[in-house]
Amino acid sequence: MNTKSKVAVIGLGNIGTAVATNLVKGDRAVIVADRTIEKAKTLSQKLGSLAQPMDIASAIKEADIIVFAVWFSAIKELLHQYATELEGKIIVDPSNPIAPDEKGGFKKIISENESAGEIIAELLPKNARLAKALGTLGVASLANAAFQKPANVLFYATDNASINTEIEELIRDNGFEPVRLGGIDQSIRIEVFGDMHEFGALGKTVTIEEAKEKLSLSEQFIG
Ligand SMILES: NC(=O)c1ccc[n+]([C@@H]2O[C@H](COP(=O)([O-])OP(=O)(O)OC[C@H]3O[C@@H](n4cnc5c(N)ncnc54)[C@H](OP(=O)(O)O)[C@@H]3O)[C@@H](O)[C@H]2O)c1
User: Separation of 11 CA from ligand 1 center, angstroms?
Assistant: First the structure.
């Protein structure tokens, strides 16, 4: 019997598609949903029977873990729109609070010292628990650096140690090794421009050994 928590990925663009694809590769069932059921059905046909298409409300109702693979502003809207359905759920936020700048790059759309994770933590539905996760790599690495030997790391942060097991299982089933950096106040480190983000000071994918070296820690290290 499969005892793993049910996962739904909402938003099937770059990150949502990569996460759903990884999960299926990792032999994990996943519910997929987007603004339209057609988009969810198209992806599920491509991925096979482990990927089940649903509308957003049903996906949230059915799943224990909801991955919001949409832009930061859309996560805020969805948290508001589905506040009742999201009560008690585990919410995964992979978002980066960025937008294109005038020079062909990206700029932060919240203040320098703020993180999307901390802002979203303030908007959580009743009894929902939040993890900042699955957004520490660009989509190319999320897809191509999965299931390697030695495994590459995905960092995560949460204030609820009670969900560590579910989040670590989710990351492993995506083909990566999980490393918890700490509470949601550490989110800024694993968002774009952060010291542990591929598009920040870290600059690349890392294995556990490389992550250990970067973090130069040992006792609080999981792995
Ligand atoms: N791309 C990366 O390399 C990367 C890396 C790390 C983290 N992230 C983060 O991951 C999140 C998703 O990024 P992405 O690159 O995957 O974006 P994307 O390719 O634009 O995909 C977003 C998807 O969400 C859908 N969507 C938008 N609003 C929605 C709503 N209200 N309800 C349901 N679905 C909705 C979009 O549908 P429509 O096409 O109909 O708008 C689209 O399918 C962002 O927060 C981003 O910061 C991205």
Answer: 6
